[in-house]
Amino acid sequence: MEQRMSSSSQPLKAEPVTGAGFDPAHVPGITPPVSGPAPAAEPDPTERETRAEETSDTAETAEALDAEEAAPAETAGPPADGPVFEAADRRARIVADHAGVRLSLDDQACEFRWDEIGAVETETARFGKRFTITVHTPDRRWYPIEIDAPSRSDFARWEAELDAVLDAYFEDGDESKDSAQAGEEAE
């Protein structure tokens, strides 16, 4: 077996070993989080009052943050008047709209803004009803998701809807080159 020798390879940095095998407190939920040193003596009444006020302020801000997180993401951005693509089966789901592309499979989800996407690829199975959408990022990573269509006739409709969304929101790098060439030809 051959291995590529490259001058660009750097040795790994020595990092301390962490994890549940080495430190049981590393597993969330088993033990409470470690805080600063334990208080040595009973605080005086004025300190108790200021702490009570601080905890009530932090509780109010925590409730406000929870309310903001509970609100749907579409309300934060401009209203979507453009096309929206959505396909789902019992496990997988893809949504492409003005905000970007969101993929979810079972309890895992990822979201890509339009500026984070290098390409979107679709593929249909030769036999069967599986529709595959792959999101490619500029850093050469790809994220495929397979959706089982109710019927093969849905493939054409899904392709058309996804093309409409990509035409509306996805800015291909070739467009900027074409507009620059058109500006040069006009001179």
Overall description:
The protein is α+β, with helices and mostly antiparallel strands and 187 residues long. It is built from three helices and seven strands; from the N terminus they run αβββββββαα. It has helices at residues 45-70, 154-169, 173-186, and strands at 85-88, 92-97, 100-105, 108-112, 119-124, 130-136, 142-148. It has a four-stranded antiparallel β-sheet. A three-stranded antiparallel β-sheet has the order 5-6-7, covered by helices on one side. Strand 6 (130-136) and strand 7 form a beta hairpin. The longest helix has 26 residues, at 45-70.
* Extended strand count: 7
Order of strands in the sheet with most strands? 1-2-3-4
The percent range for helix content is: 25-40%
Low-pLDDT segments, ≥5 res: 67-76
H/E element order: HEEEEEEEHH
- Return the average pLDDT rounded to an integer: 73
- Tell me the structural class: alpha+beta
Strand content: 15-25%
Compute the gyration radius: what is it? 26 Å
Globular, elongated, flat, extended or rod-shaped: what is the shape? elongated
Number of helices: 3
How does the major sheet shape up? 4 strands, antiparallel
Determine the N-to-C terminus distance: 57 Å
